[in-house]
Specification:
Length: about 325
């Protein structure tokens, strides 16, 4: 069963307030108030001196990878944007070389925007499961692993701002995925891709907002049904950090206690592209909010060329 053997997240120490971003992003005074007072977005992390490769390596340094490089067969980099570096630069190849993972099959997963991180976890587990089915059982302690990375720079206005909804923050995460782990076992994954919300097709922001919460609630229910659970069985929801009001309204729709959704990182970190789930997981563990056997749910939404609504259920 797909499991997360190790999870770590990294964010730069340098921070900007929403007021600091007003001039460079062209925000009006009313928009600044909307983000801070209504959406609960106070600060973001941005480090102009750190490269994309630096971010990814900083996250990878926080997981127990040293001495296990030979076990890593796949490296998946989940990100929201399909293009993040000018040709011929290849941050993923640089990271693999620095980590001693040049032997691994490495590729990016971008098709579902900010929900690509959940897709990458699912793909990593399926690749490892296929390898296990095709070959002999490995020796204990030598089971193959996949490394799933997330991390992006807020390098353009589009990569810093989701108008009227959220502010993006720089950060990265690293996960070691196995097919045999005993903790953080993946119980279910549900995903709904909705091409009708392609902004190039003329869909309005209002239409998307009207359907946003019902569609996310639907995919959460699909994941719970697959796992044979109900929301009453869920100890904690780890959200995508779009804004506070969205999740407060989601909780009313789901009839789920808002205090069981980890929302603190929205205020202090903003929306960290594909890394939100892992940043929130790290915070939950640091605060002792998850115990062995607890079931928790991760939710994410990706928007761009259409929209993707995704949810995963894990057992800690």
């Amino acid at each position: 069963m797909t499991a997360l053997d190790a999870v770590a997240a990294y964010q730069p120490a340098a921070r900007l307030t929403v007021e600091d971003l007003a001039e460079p992003l062209g925000l009006t005074e009313m928009e600044v108030k909307l983000f801070r007072r209504f959406h609960g977005l106070g600060e973001v992390c941005q480090d102009p001196d750190a490269s994309l490769t630096d971010l990814l390596l900083a996250a990878a340094a926080l997981i127990p990878l040293r001495g296990q490089q030979h076990r890593v067969r796949y490296v998946l980099w989940a990100r929201a944007f399909s293009t993040v570096a000018p040709y011929p630069h290849n941050p993923l190849a640089d990271v693999c070389r620095e980590l001693g993972l040049e032997h691994a099959l490495a590729f990016a997963v971008t098709q579902q925007s900010c929900a690509s991180s959940l897709l990458a976890i699912d793909l990593a587990g399926r690749l490892l499961a296929a390898d296990a089915a095709a070959g002999p059982d490995p020796a204990p302690g030598a089971e193959p692993l996949a490394l799933v990375l997330t991390g992006e720079k807020a390098f353009t206005r589009d990569a810093q701002l989701l108008p009227g909804m959220s502010l993006f923050s720089e950060g990265a995460s690293a996960c070691l995925v196995s097919a045999t782990g005993a903790r953080n076992r993946l119980l279910a994954y549900a995903c709904s891709q909705r091409g009708e919300f392609d902004t190039a097709g003329g869909v309005s922001a209002e239409e998307f907002q009207q359907q946003y919460r019902p569609l996310l609630a639907g995919v959460i229910q699909q994941a719970l049904d697959q796992a044979g659970l109900t929301l009453a069985d869920i100890r904690l929801i780890l959200p995508h950090n779009v804004n506070l009001v969205t999740w407060q309204r989601m909780c009313r729709l789901l009839r789920f206690p808002v205090e069981q959704v980890l929302l603190d990182n929205i205020v202090s970190n903003g929306h960290v592209f594909c890394a939100d789930a892992f940043l929130n997981y790290q915070t939950a563990c640091q605060r002792g909010l998850l115990h062995p056997g607890d079931r928790y749910l991760v939710a994410s939404v990706g928007a761009g060329h259409g929209a993707t609504f995704a949810a995963m259920v894990f057992e800690h």
